[in-house]
Amino acid sequence: MAKILMVVGSQRANGFQAQLANEISKIIGDRAEVSFLDYSEVPFVNMDIEFPAPASVAAAREAFEQADGVWFVAPVYNDTFSPQVKNLLDWISRPVVANERPTAVSNGVKITFSSASAGTSYEHMFADVVRLAKFISMDVMDEPLFGHSLTSEWATGEVTLSDDERAAIEAQVSAFLAKISE
């Protein structure tokens, strides 16, 4: 069975991204084993602590290596992706062995993105994060991506998906599972 690592790009407990990631996981159902990455202890990238990598970084790298695919559910911060996502991708793209770039865990990782954000601001974020993921040699599934426009959720704190949105997530799930099996 395929293994999908879900990465929630916000540390907010039960935030919109976490809720969306849980909905995606439910739609995946028994077609793949889904796990969620806890990277709350990953420090800011710092070459002074890179070798040996902190235990939290080593654990995140191991989770990426064990997954058949990684699904980021990322918020939009100031018209781009969150600093948490950037920092994690920076660590994942750094060499595991000093001065040996081919040892970076990011190389060839199959990845996709979704987001819940204001309006369609996720479109700019997707463009930025997809560009970065490709730059660090990830195998990006950039079509279809799912973005949910937050509306009443700002008042309720609860993500509500329409039937059409669930169908769009289903299309992304099916496409990503096909990519993983390539």
Write structural notes for this entry.
The protein has about 180 residues and is an alpha/beta fold. The chain has six helices and eight strands, in the order βαβαβββαβαββαα. Strands 1, 2, 3, 6, 7 and 8 form a six-stranded parallel beta sheet that branches. A two-stranded antiparallel ribbon has the order 4-5. β6 (about 110-120), α4 and β7 form a beta-alpha-beta unit. The two termini are about 15 Å apart. The mean pLDDT is about 95.
Question: What is the element layout, followed by pairings?
Answer:
Blueprint: E1 2-8, H1 16-28, E2 32-36, H2 55-66, E3 69-73, E4 76-77, E5 80-81, H3 83-93, E6 110-118, H4 122-135, E7 139-140, E8 146-150, H5 153-156, H6 163-180
Parallel strand pairs: 1-2, 1-3, 3-6, 6-7, 6-8
Antiparallel strand pairs: 4-5
Descriptors:
6 helices; single chain; 182 residues; two-stranded antiparallel ribbon; globular; alpha/beta
Order of helices and strands: EHEHEEEHEHEEHH
Range of strand content: 15-25%
Report low-confidence residues grouped into runs of 5 or more: none
Label the structural class. Answer: alpha/beta
> What is the share of helical residues?
25-40%
Q: How many β strands by DSSP? A: 8
